[in-house]
Amino acid sequence: MNAKNLVLFFVLSCVLVACKTEQGTDNESLKQKEQEFLSELTTRFTKLLTKNSHEDSLGIIPRIGEIHSQFPFPWMSQEKVLNEQAHFLLAQLTNALCYGLDSSLYEVARMQEIENQLILDTANLDLLAEGNYLFTKNYLVFVSQLKYGLLNHTSKDSVYYEWKIKMLTPADLTEMKNGLYHNELSQSIENLEPQFVQYKQLRHSWTNYLEGKKFGADKIKVSSMKEDSSLAYQNAEKALVLYNYLDSTQLKNDSLFHQALTCFQADNNLATDGRIGSATAYALSQSNRERKLAVLASLEKYKWEELTEDSLLYVNIPSYELKFIEHNKVAKTLRAVVGKTINQTPTFSAKMDYLILNPFWHIPRSISSKEILPKLKRDSNLASKKGYTIYDNNRNKIDASSIDWSKVSESSFNYRISQTRSGGTALGRVKFIFTNEHSIYMHDTPAKILFNNDVRAYSHGCVRIENPLELATYLISRKDSNYTQDSVENFVQTGQQKRIDLNYPLTVSLRYFCCEGTPEGDMRFYRDIYKKETQLRSYLSRLFYSKQE
User: Fold this and answer.
1) Which phi and psi (to 5°) does residue 329 adopt?
2) Does residue 514 sit in helix, strand or coil?
3) CA angle 228-232-233, nearest 5°?
4) pLDDT, tens digit, for every residue of 456-481?
C-alpha cells in the first residue's frame, strides 16, 4: 500500500470507528462538539502522516496506520491528555538502558514536552496529533530494536547501525496492538523480547545492577599479590571504591574490604577467596564502562539468533559452564573446560546423537605430531606408559620401540596414534557426540584439578565436563528412566566400551557471551578470552557514547 492510499485508509478507519462509537452509545452521550473535536483531530493527524509519508524510507507510516487501524488515538485519555499507556512507554524509553538500548535513539525530549504541555493545555489538537504520531513512531522503533537488535551483523568484517522497523512481522504488530488497546503494554513488550531463559535472567540482573552505578571509563591498574602484595591491596581498595563496591568512608576496614572484594569476585565468576590472584587483578583493572559494554553486546547478540528450544544443553564458552535447560529453566550447572586461545571452541548448535562409555581416543594428527611426538622423542617408553597404539598409514599396528623417533619430524609424521585403554584415555570414562563440521564433542578428563581454576581454557577445542557421568545419566534416563547414576557407574567399572544412541532430539548449543544473570538477579561478568567482542563493543561504544555520559 503506497503512502497516499495509506492516509486515505487511515481517515476511513477513523470515520468508521467514530461511527461505531456513536451507534454503540446513547444518542445524547455523543455531543456535536465531541464529534467536531475528533474530526478536527483526525484531520490534523492525517496531515502529519501525509507530511512524513514522502520521505518514509524506513516503512514507519504504513505501520503507524496498522497500529491505529482499529483505535485512531490509542495514546489519548478521555480527559484529552496522554493516558497511562503513554506514560508507561515514555518511562521505558527514558530507561532504555535496562533493555540494552539507548534513550538518545528516541525522541524522548519532545515526547516529554508534549506530555507536560498537555497538562497545562488540555485538548490541544496540535499537541494531541503530534503526540499520537510520535508515541506510535517511537513505539515501533523501540520494539523493533528490542526484538531484532540495533545492528546489522551479517557481514563478517563489520557491524553497523540499521533501522529494523521493516522486520516487524504481522504477528509482532498484532501483539503491539493488543497491548496498546487492552492496557497491557507491559506484558506485550515482555512478550516481544527474546524469551530464552539466559536473556531474561540477564535483563533482570542488569536492571538490578544499574541501581547506584556509574559507568565511566576510569579504572585502576591492579597487579596480583605475587607481583607486589602491598600495592595489590592498595589499588584493589581504590578500584572497589571506584566501582561502587566500597564506600570511601569504609577504607582501612579489613572486614568491609574483604566483604566488598568477595562480592566483586562473585560478580565476576571468580573464587570468592578474598585474595588478589591474576584473574581477580585482571577483573579489577576493567572499568565499569567496559562491563556495561559487555552487557550491551550480550543483549544485542541474544537478538541476532534466538534459541527457541524448550530444553537443551547450553555451554557459554567464557563462563566455563554447561547448563542443563529444561522447560526454559536452568535445571543443573556443571563446570567445563574449553579450548585454549590457539584452539578456540567454536560457536554452533547441533543435535546430541549418542554417547560412548569407556571410549577409545583416536588422537588427531594435529595433536600427535605437535604434542605427542616431542614426548616420544624424550621418553621411548611413553607409548606403553600411556597405552598408545601406533599405526602406519595402512592401519598396520607398529611397535613404538621399533621407530627411531629422533628422525621423525612434524612434517614427516606419518603415523596414527590411538589410546585404547578403556576408561583410562585422555577422554576419560565417557564422551558425548553431537555431529558437527568442527569435530567438537564433550568428554570426561583425568585432569580434574583444572576445574578448580578460575580460567579454564585448556583444551584443544572440545568441551571437558567436570561430572560427566551425571550428564550421561541425565541423557540416558531421558530415554530409559530405569537408568540411574549408580547403574552407569557400575557399567563404567567393567571397562567395556559401549555406545548408547539417544534416539531423541536434544540440542547442544555452544555460545559466547561475556556476561550472564543469575536466577537470583545478580550479574556475572566473564573475561573475553578469545577477544571475540572487541569489534562489537567498539561500535557500541561509539553508538552509546557519542555524547558525554
Assistant:
1) -135, 145
2) coil
3) 130
4) 999 999 999 999 999 999 999 888 88
